[in-house]
Specification:
By secondary structure, the protein is mostly helical. It has six helices and no strands. The chain has one domain.
């Protein structure tokens, strides 16, 4: 397979896998840590309206979803890519970071969560995936 095509497929696969992992963790979260009474996460508007009911424990799974989803996507890209095994996973990390920025601008999360999420979930986990799975320099 042409290396350029394979690298493009690696990025697409990384975005897909990372998004699936992220959504799976978010869907799993309310069965492990139930939403507060009266909270509704079915729409963005209802989530905005009930976000004030959330306690710190309710932010654990969103953080894990962002971090592990980014890691899974970057790792997938690093494994599949033929060349640019450092640059291409960084594209994935950047994509998910932009998604995180949009998320914290859309939903009124506490400032401590915003800082922890944006600083520790995306780029550090992308870097870890690169260190673990990008076995050559490119």
């Amino acid at each position: 397979m042409n290396p350029i095509v394979r690298n493009i497929l690696a990025v697409i696969a990384g975005l897909f896998v990372g998004s699936i992992v992220n959504m799976f963790i978010l869907l799993l979260s309310s069965s492990i840590i139930p939403l507060p009474n009266g909270a509704d996460n079915t729409t963005t508007e209802s989530l905005k309206a009930t976000m004030h009911l959330f306690e710190p424990k309710h932010f654990l799974f969103p953080f894990l979803a962002h971090a592990i989803g980014t890691f899974a996507g970057a790792a997938t890209t690093a494994i599949i890519a033929i060349t640019h095994k450092t640059k291409l996973p960084l594209i994935i990390g950047g994509f998910f970071l932009i998604g995180g920025i949009v998320s914290v601008c859309t939903l009124p999360s506490p400032i401590w969560f915003t800082i922890i999420d944006l600083v520790f979930a995306y780029i550090p986990l992308t870097y870890l995936a690169i260190k673990l799975f990008a076995n050559n320099k490119s």
